[in-house]
């Protein structure tokens, strides 16, 4: 069985441990959920690294369809999550465009739970091929979950590509990435400690 993600421990402060996760769609996992009209598939070109990337086609006449690509659960006030991914478009100053965005989800059982916007990056990208975008989320107001989105700002039929997801989250959080034919992998501090 191939390992789906790379996990690294990072000492953030004297007593606070964070875990870095990297996910590259190599298991051909589709988004955990979709809001609005968007068609997503796994493709072999273009890719940032590896063999596969996620392709998302905007199929909505207006608004901002979203692909849910990471779900972080078990958060508490004061936690910090950094999320990022590589995105591809080759249309400078024109659609298609996409941004990294997030929403709070305090329902630990339903990826579609919504407890308000968590905001995201204002940058639509330069449209010159692959570029990296990320955003830092500060957990406040009692929120316990965060869903990371690929949001398109385009016209119907416009397509964007995403690869190499990155998450830096507290070791106590559960991080769930897309999955293919194997069970969803997640990382908690207990699971990481069990490796040693």
Please explain how this structure is put together.
With 196 residues, the protein is mainly beta. The chain has a single domain (5-194), classed as Jelly Rolls, CATH 2.60.120. It has 1 helix and 14 strands. It has one helix spanning 189-194, and strands at residues 5-11, 17-23, 33-35, 38-43, 53-58, 66-73, 80-89, 98-104, 117-120, 129-138, 145-152, 159-170, 174-176, 186-187. The strands form 2 sheets. Strands 1, 2, 4, 5, 7, 10 and 12 form a 7-stranded antiparallel beta sheet that branches. Strand 1 and strand 2 form a beta hairpin. The longest helix is centred in the last third of the chain and has 6 residues, at 189-194. The relative contact order is 0.29.
Give the key terms.
196 residues, mainly beta, Jelly Rolls, 7-stranded antiparallel β-sheet, 14 strands
CATH C-level class: Mainly Beta
> How does CATH name the architecture?
Sandwich
Structurally, the number of domains stands at 1
User: What letter string, H or E per element, gives the SSE order?
Assistant: EEEEEEEEEEEEEEH
């Amino acid at each position: 069985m191939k390992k789906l993600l790379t996990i690294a421990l990072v000492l953030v402060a004297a007593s606070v441990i964070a875990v870095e996760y990297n996910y590259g769609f190599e298991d051909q996992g589709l988004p955990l959920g979709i809001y609005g009209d968007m068609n997503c598939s796994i493709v072999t070109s273009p890719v940032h690294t590896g063999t596969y990337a996620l392709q998302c086609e905007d199929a909505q006449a207006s608004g901002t369809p979203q692909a849910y690509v990471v779900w972080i659960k078990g958060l508490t006030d004061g936690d910090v999550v950094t999320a990022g991914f590589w995105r591809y478009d080759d249309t400078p100053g024109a659609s298609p465009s996409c941004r990294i965005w997030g929403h709070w989800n305090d329902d630990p059982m339903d990826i579609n739970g919504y407890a308000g916007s968590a905001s995201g990056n204002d940058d639509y990208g330069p449209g010159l091929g692959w570029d990296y975008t990320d955003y830092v989320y500060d957990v406040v107001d009692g929120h316990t979950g965060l869903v990371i989105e690929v949001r398109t700002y385009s016209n119907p039929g416009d397509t964007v590509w995403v690869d190499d997801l990155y998450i830096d989250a507290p070791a106590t959080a559960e991080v769930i990435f897309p999955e293919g034919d194997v069970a969803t992998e997640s990382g908690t501090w207990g699971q990481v400690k069990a490796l040693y």
